[in-house]
Amino acid sequence: MTFELAQRNVRLHLFRSILAAIGIIIGVVAITSMGLLGGALEQSVSDELMNMGNTIIITPAGPSVGDEKAGIDERDIRQIKLIAGRNPTIAFYNTYDQVKVGDSQGYSSVYGVDPGELPPITTLISGRYISGTEGVMIGQTLARNYGIREGNFITVGIGAREQRIRVVGILEDTGFSGGIQTDNAIIGSERWYEATYSGRGKYDQVVITVHNLDDIDGIKDAIDARLNRREDVVNIMDFRSLISSIQEAIGQISLFVMAIGGISLLVAAVSILNVMLISVNERIKEIGILRSIGTQKADISKMFLYEAAILGLIGSVCGGLLSLVGGGLLIMLIMQDISYLLTMHTVITVIYGMIIGTVICIAAGVYPAHRAAQLNPIDALSND
Amino acid sequence: MEICIRLEDVKRIYPMEAGDVYALNGVTLDIGVGEFVAIMGASGSGKTTLLNQIGCLDQPTSGNLYIEGKNTRELSDYELTNLRRDAIGFIFQKFNLIPLLTAFENVEYPLILKTGARDTTGRPADLLRLVGLDGGHMKHTPNQLSGGQQQRVAIARALANDPRIILCDEPTGNLDSKTGNQIMDLLTDLNRQGKTIVMVTHSDEIATYADRLITIRDGVIQ
């Protein structure tokens, strides 16, 4: 009966109850949508970074001095490959150079890679892979930016080094993966690169793709012990700490954004508090009657807590459902990929949002309920 | 005579800025089981304060109040609330029904308080018929009922847990004289069935229904 009294009071003051519930709806939508967006961002960045999370990148320790180019030599690479064992290891040349296509010009990465190493780590979208010194391949982004198709010629280099070369294939964008960023790059064979930029046998980078993440430290230590025994020959790095700090940063950002959403929930809680205090004031006489005919203080409290819980539950459930729409819109708007909404994280976030909304609502009802229970029956009865 | 309500030098003092107000100033009174007592007095004489003490809605500042042999001073708020629920029925001048509940539910409510469950015995309907409310009105809420009908519902509610004591505060104060007399006949019937009735009134005519008349003035019984 206590619950029914609460329920009937909500219905009796339907408009006021709806207004109070709208506050909760907005609050829940705010925190939940933000939570959904944060989760989607974190996941999308994780997906992107995962590809490089298992790579070890080895670069020369010393700088190039004059004509003497720094690089990792064949002997060191053999050592590295030995240590890496069955984990795929690729060594390549890398520089930065001018590109001209027709009237437009710009800069791009230039890679020199053993043609045999490319197929396992890249996907061809048109043309063919390079072989020998004839032609280069380019990344999809670069191709799109300059409107290049396979068979077109591009001009690479400046001044004396300038050469026209044919594009034989275009590689699909891979994002930031495997240590080689092919998206906006020109990829030639090792022999072409050596002929163009010299520095033969002085590789700019070695990338090991490690199958088992637990092996990363062992491989790094072994390379360090072997190659950097007397002096630092190579720098060895991996991306685990980078990835975790990026994830942490995104987590903090989404927490911060949720906190901003939380402010609206706090405002909603204040309005629930206000509505409940009004409700208590309006029903002082009723409380007096209930007390005089033998209703315990605890039951009076419960009546108002139920009322807050009804408002909170209705508001939170509506808010939870609406936040799927709100979160979906945000994710569509910012990430253009709705699939990030359809995850377990979404379900958990929405449930959390609803629980937080309901709990805050009930908490807002505690003080009014306490006040109602403490009313003196005689004073309450004489109230008109 | 078996004593039902006993007051020993009961004082109720309201501290005010201008000085203490003695609403009750040393009331000693015994009311026996099955008595019908009318308390009379002018406005501000302390008669309602006296009724509130007996009804355990308020506690005396000093002195002792015994309800059926229990010293109310020794009872907790929880126990006093249960005493109101089980041993005492209230009938007010302004009926004081719960506006959110129907007539039937208003009578059912004290039963639910006691048993913790909705009624299955049909007692609320029996009581409403007993006080003269027909079945058609049982589903109406108080604001759909006339004053007389509301007071009948209030009496049925007061009887819900079969209390030994019924306290009435100006039970006919808001009713026309014909309806008032009907209500008084109802109360007289209840008294004949053995209920102890204490009634506050300022009407001499209504007071004639009682067996005993107590006049109070400035918080003192005359």
Automatic annotation (TrEMBL), chain A:
Q: What family does the entry list?
A: Belongs to the ABC-4 integral membrane protein family.
Q: What is this protein called?
A: ABC transporter permease
A single GO cellular-component term on record: plasma membrane
MacB-like periplasmic core domain spans which residues? 17-225
**Transit peptide in keyword set:** no
Which key words tag this protein in UniProt? Cell membrane, Membrane, Transmembrane, Transmembrane helix
Q: Which residues are in the ABC3 transporter permease C-terminal domain?
A: 259-377
Q: Which PANTHER family match?
A: ABC TRANSPORTER PERMEASE YTRF (PTHR30572:SF4), MEMBRANE COMPONENT OF TRANSPORTER-RELATED (PTHR30572)
- Localisation per UniProt entry: Cell membrane
Where are the membrane-spanning stretches?
Answer: 18-41, 253-277, 304-335, 347-367
- Give the originating organism: Methanocalculus chunghsingensis
A GO molecular-function term, please? transmembrane transporter activity
Q: What InterPro entries does this protein's entry cite?
A: ABC3_permease_C, MacB_PCD, Macrolide_Exporter_MacB
Membrane topology, from the record: Multi-pass membrane protein
* Taxonomic lineage from the root: Archaea, Methanobacteriati, Methanobacteriota, Stenosarchaea group, Methanomicrobia
From TrEMBL, chain B:
SMART domains from the UniProt entry: AAA
Check the record and name the PANTHER family matching this protein.
CELL DIVISION ATP-BINDING PROTEIN FTSE (PTHR42798:SF6), LIPOPROTEIN-RELEASING SYSTEM ATP-BINDING PROTEIN LOLD (PTHR42798)
Q: Where's the ABC transporter domain?
A: 5-222
| A GO MF term | transmembrane transporter activity
Q: What is the lineage of its organism?
A: Archaea, Methanobacteriati, Methanobacteriota, Stenosarchaea group, Methanomicrobia
User: Carries keyword Zinc-finger?
Assistant: no
Keywords for the protein's UniProt record, in alphabetical order: ATP-binding, Nucleotide-binding, Transport
Record-given protein name: ABC transporter ATP-binding protein
| Entry's family note | Belongs to the ABC transporter superfamily.
Gene Ontology cellular-component terms for this entry are: membrane protein complex
